[in-house]
Design brief:
Elements lengths: L3 H16 L18 E3 L3 E5 L12 E3 L3 E5 L5 E6 L6 E8 L2 E9 L9 E6 L8 E6 L3 E7 L2 E8 L2 E4 L10 E10 L2 E2 L3 E6 L2 E2 L16 E4 L31 H10 L1 H5 L3 E4 L3 E2 L5 E5 L2 E4 L9 E5 L6 H13 L3 E6 L9 H5 L40 H17 L4 E4 L7 H14 L6 E4 L5 H5 L9 E2 L2 H11 L6 H15 L6 E3 L8 H5 L9 H7 L9 H14 L3 E5 L25 H19 L2 H4 L1 E7 L3 E8 L2 E8 L5 E2 L15 E4 L3 E2 L3 E7 L1
Parallel strand pairs: 1-7, 17-18, 17-28, 18-23, 23-24, 24-25, 25-26, 27-28
Antiparallel strand pairs: 2-5, 3-6, 4-5, 6-7, 8-9, 9-12, 10-11, 10-13, 13-14, 13-15, 15-16, 19-22, 20-21, 29-30, 30-31, 31-35, 32-34, 33-35
Helix pairs in contact: 2-4, 6-7, 9-10, 13-14
């Protein structure tokens, strides 16, 4: 039975929605992006308004009822000054062409156990509500946004029935975001996708364009499958050891694997292709132990950034690959290198002034100074770095990126070396993309090694959708492999990530990648955390080590597939391919002759991808901890009454999950096993579901 207060609030909401000036029939959503929260961590903050609404051409005015907003170096940039009485949450109003968009603004304060928690549930059939918001640790003030428009602010205690204006049905896909604050801190953020104004409740309502539904597979093109031996062209020089020469993988090989159903059967729906642009035909770079130069098999030394490398295929093969992938309802994103080009590139020969200085201001060689001079450092002597502080360079290089969208039906980019490129470039590229392809879904995910705050500075805010979460990967690695490792540290890192990137972020949750040693070799003890992981791959044959390494890798896949973000499988991690660091982690992919352990692991990964694809709680559900200790991590994700509970046990003892209760009144009696048992085995995991 609903309380009188809940019904009264619902009535108030309907009334205020009808007369709210911020939700207008003037289609503010045609020019603005869905609302994303602005977290204020300082008393004074500089905000580029178009970071939050990149499709706006001109900002007329910006104001706020609870903040002092001062124009700063232009109308689209403002200085926000907090008042002593600024509430924990408010809005920033952005005016353009007679329309108003709202940016949620959240004052970051110390979180306590009394902070509110939100979850979304189906509305009762005896109401006209679209859905119900339930709260724990209430009362709290709730802020509800549709797209970029503040629908209403209300004070709630337990449950709240949500209705929306009828014109929200005019859009095929739109979004509701819900935030809440009280004296204990801020809540998690709700994200509810709408299909023609009604909440998405079924998996068949999810399309290829829904970014939250992506499951990514990283293909290292040269090391995947040789579909056309006629284009093989190794350097075959005594200066180049075989493992850093071309192995023959190409785009036709990827096409053949699409046709064979490799990706479909594994359950992934997004293929990430390593760079396919033209690289040099000769060898460059050098290491002394062992002594070898390198070919450009990896694709990260572009000579031409708008031409397909003829060792990988041509434009026609790329088009066929995209067509076949889309026929299988899969996306394809391209690894794009903007930071640098090969020294022999005609572009650099025509514009030698476009690059940064190879010498630091204090006279040192400016090579591989990744953090000290991250915006100017060269990665090597033969790959000069572009100077992205120059607007003309940003314009030219962003046009080169757009070339691939203009000529091919690509679904997005993985952007190399994100943190080494000025924000001006990312803003320029995203605004061009938004303006030229307003109705096209283009995922942009970047690569940044660094602190969560640095990574978060590129996420949303008019730049990128997400980045790969290396910090979360390393937290899991340390928890499961390092002596004394604890899941408590992993949970702390996860909470940090959710606050920095958003509770419904599009960060890439990786099983590994081409720049790090294979997890299975570390987990199995065949490769040490503290040894030189590159040199080890040259000096000895690295294997999987202890048999339980396969169980630990399965646990990593289970984590990635059940967290917010985009799960990403590095090729071969679905079968436990071993390897030290580059280049040993880039062995040729194997497609047959699997061991029983490899067969079992691949089947477990397939079941995980199937669950990820079919359960909306894993796409849009909110995440809550159930148990956090040194050896056991348990959490649940909840969306519209559906729930997925995950229990990871890295210890040596069995763990009985029946002692744990679920939040928001969910009954453990309603849960059924999907993978595992109610008593979780050592080095194992269990997944339970409520349908």
């Amino acid at each position: 039975m609903k309380s009188f207060s809940c019904l009264l609030l619902t009535g108030i909401l309907v009334l205020l929605q009808a007369c709210s000036p911020s939700v207008s029939r003037k289609s503010v959503f045609d020019v603005l992006e869905p609302a994303t929260v602005l977290n204020l961590e300082q008393d004074t903050t500089i905000v580029l308004v178009r970071d939050y609404f990149p499709s706006i051409d001109k900002v007329d005015r910006t104001d706020s009822p609870n903040l002092k907003v001062i124009p700063y170096q232009g109308q689209d940039t403002v200085m926000i000054i907090l008042h002593e009485d600024t509430p924990a949450m408010t809005v920033l109003n952005v005016h353009t062409k007679g329309q108003v968009g709202n940016i949620p603004v959240r004052r970051m304060t110390l979180q306590t156990q009394a902070a509110p928690r939100l979850a979304v549930f189906p509305a009762s059939p005896d109401t006209d509500a679209l859905f119900t918001v339930r709260i724990e640790n209430g009362p709290a003030t709730l802020y509800l946004f549709w797209q970029n428009s503040l629908v209403q602010t209300v004070r709630i205690t337990d449950v709240y029935n949500v209705l929306l204006p009828g014109f929200t049905a005019l859009m095929d896909r739109s979004w509701v975001r819900v935030y809440a604050v009280n004296q204990g801190g801020h809540s998690n953020d709700l994200l509810i996708p709408l299909d023609k104004g009604r909440p998405v409740l079924r998996q068949d309502q999810i399309t290829r364009s829904d970014k939250h539904a992506r499951i990514m597979y990283q293909v290292f093109v040269d090391r995947f499958f040789n579909g056309n031996p006629a284009n093989d062209r190794r350097i075959n020089s005594p200066e180049v050891l075989p493992r850093v020469d071309y192995q023959g993988g190409d785009l036709e090989g990827v096409v053949l694997k699409i046709k064979e159903g490799f990706f479909r059967e594994l359950g992934v729906n997004t293929i990430w292709l390593s760079p396919i642009t033209q690289n040099p035909y000769d060898a460059w770079g050098q290491i002394e132990d062992p002594k070898t130069k390198f070919s450009g098999y990896h694709g990260y030394w572009p000579l031409y950034i708008t031409k397909v490398d003829d060792r990988f295929g041509n434009e026609q093969v790329l088009t066929e690959l995209l067509d076949r992938a889309h026929e299988d309802n899969m996306n394809v994103i391209l690894d794009h290198v903007a930071n640098h080009m090969h020294i022999n590139s005609p572009t650099l020969q025509q514009h030698p002034d476009w690059v940064t200085s190879p010498v630091t201001p204090d006279g040192r060689p400016n090579f591989e100074l990744w953090d000290e001079f991250r915006l100017t450092t060269w990665f090597d002597k033969h790959i000069p770095k572009f100077d992205f502080s120059r607007p003309d360079v940003c314009q030219a290089l962003s046009d080169s990126a757009l070339f691939w969208l203009q000529h091919f039906d690509l679904d997005g980019f993985r952007h190399d070396a994100t943190k080494h490129i000025d924000e001006l470039f990312w803003r320029t590229l995203t605004r061009k993309k938004t303006k030229e392809f307003p109705d096209r879904t283009v995922l942009q995910i970047g690569e940044t090694y660094g602190s969560p705050s640095l990574i978060g500075s590129y996420v949303k805010k008019g730049m990128l959708d997400g980045q790969f979460d290396f910090n979360l990967y390393y937290a899991f690695l340390n928890a499961t492999v390092a002596p004394g490792g604890s899941f408590e540290n992993l949970w702390d890192q996860l909470e940090t990530c959710l606050i920095q990137y958003g509770y419904h972020n599009l960060m890439g949750n990786i099983s590994g990648n081409h720049d790090m040693a294979r997890y299975i070799s570390l987990a199995g003890g065949d490769l040490g955390l503290d040894e030189n992981q590159k040199l080890a791959g040259w000096k000895r044959r690295i294997g999987t080590g202890k048999p339980e390494s396969f169980d630990y890798l399965a646990m990593l896949h289970a984590l990635n597939m059940t967290l917010p973000g985009i799960p990403c499988i590095y090729y071969g991690d679905e079968i436990g391919m071993p390897g030290a660091n580059d280049p040993d982690n880039r062995r040729m992919m194997i497609f047959e002759g699997y061991t029983p352990q490899q067969v079992r692991l691949k089947e477990r990964v397939r079941r995980l991808t199937s669950l990820r694809s079919t359960n909306l709680a894993l796409l849009y559900g909110d995440l809550f901890p159930l148990h956090v200790s040194r050896d056991v991590l348990a959490y649940v994700r909840i969306y519209m009454g559906k729930a997925v509970a995950v229990y990871l046990n890295k210890g040596h003892d069995f763990f009985d999950i029946r002692s744990l209760s679920l939040p928001f009144g969910l009954s453990t009696d309603s849960m059924v096993p999907y993978m595992g048992e109610t008593v979780v085995a050592p080095q194992g995991f269990t997944i339970m579901v409520i349908e």
